[in-house]
Amino acid sequence: MGVSKEAVCSKCHSENKEEKGYFTAKLMHRLMDSLSIEEKRAILLIEDAEQKGMEISEAKFKLRDVRQAKLELRTVIHSFNEEKFRQVAINKGLAVSRQIITEADEAVDEYYFRRFGLGAATLIISIIVVTLYLIIRKKESTNT
Fold first, then answer.
1. Pairwise CA distance, residues 42 & 37, whole Å
2. pLDDT at residue 126 in the model
3. How far apart are CA 99 and CA 117, in angstroms?
4. Is 80 helix (H, G, I), strand (E, B) or coil?
5. Which residue, 5, 30, 94, 109, has fewest beta-carbon neighbours within 10 Å?
6. What is the three-class DSSP state of 4?
7. Burial of residue 135, with CB atoms counted within 10 A of its CB: 0-12 exposed, 13-18 middle, 19 or more buried
8. CA-CA distance, 42 to 48, in Å (whole number)?
């Protein structure tokens, strides 16, 4: 699929000859590539969130929908129906992969927010402990 010299579509379609088929093949190839790139990006973000210990199982489950859309595109391509191909690629594949990316991004952001909160709480508690220690020591020294 596509318009490169190796692509099957380019054997009959070119910019000058059968140009509707050429531009349809070009669009389909671009959409399929975009979906593959978005899927890989989603997978990397999910792996990053999982490695950080965040709950990301729902987003991980949604990856099946992206894979299903890719399989469906392989079937739809043979219909040569640009609109149907576009609907599957954009509405089923790209939309879901962008949802996954958003969810994974939010999980990673939450991880860093929690780490910052833990650091701030630890600092405050440490200051309170040191202050209490100094107060107790001062009272003990004045009592003796």
1. 9
2. 97
3. 27
4. coil
5. 5
6. coil
7. exposed
8. 10
- What are the structure tokens assigned to 84, written together? 């149907």
pLDDT at 6: 67
| CB burial of residue 93 (10 Å; 0-12, 13-18, 19+) | buried
pLDDT tens-digit map of 66-119: 999 998 988 888 777 888 888 999 888 999 999 999 999 999 999 999 999 999
55, two tokens: 């709950």
- C-alpha dist (Å) from residue 20 to 64, 79, 81, 82, 127: 33, 15, 12, 10, 71
Of 144, 31, 142, 141, the closest CA to residue 97 belongs to: 31
Q: What is the pLDDT of residues 18-33, one digit of tens each?
A: 667 777 777 888 888 9
